[in-house]
Specification:
alpha/beta, 27% strand
Length: 154
């Protein structure tokens, strides 16, 4: 992992599921969760997307913004969001530029390579405060809420 807590989160400009460009600067002054996941419409990624959608109001109430990122394109993200009624923003890093910059790991499954499920907590100044590697999607959103609320209180 190239990125470390205390480092600035790299600047990015990526399209979301609606084709709208989202940039790091859009989140200035807010806590931000950037979660990277392997692939749209796969079991673990669906669990994670549903959990973040179900708890989005808790994140909003705590002043925490949330985005998911994968190498899938905006059309795939749109289908994924529509199929499961996601209310979260998914960004398309189709060239894996951001994932490579951060130094995310890759895993192989059935002969295909996937970016590992990794989550970053970024503070209102754009600094990485916490990194979660090889994330278990089950209950991860609750761990994040608890940990970020502890960071906010410090």
């Amino acid at each position: 992992m190239t990125a470390q807590p205390g480092n600035p989160f790299p600047d990015f400009s990526l399209p979301n599921q609606d084709g709208k460009t989202t940039k790091l600067s859009d989140f200035a002054g807010h806590w931000l969760v950037v979660y990277f996941y392997p692939k749209d419409d796969t079991p673990g990624c669906t669990i994670q997307g549903k959990a973040f959608t179900a708890s989005k109001s808790d994140f909003d109430a705590a002043g925490i913004k949330l985005v998911g990122v994968s190498a899938d394109d905006p059309a795939s993200h749109k289908n994924f969001c529509t199929k499961f009624a996601f209310t979260i923003e998914l960004l398309a890093d189709t060239n894996s530029t951001l994932m490579k910059t951060l130094g995310l790991g890759q895993s192989e499954w059935k002969g295909m390579k996937f970016w590992e499920r990794t989550t970053f907590v970024v503070d209102p100044k754009g600094t990485i405060r916490k990194i979660y590697e090889k994330v278990n999607p089950q209950g991860h959103e609750q761990v994040l809420l608890h940990d970020i609320q502890s960071l906010q209180a410090a």
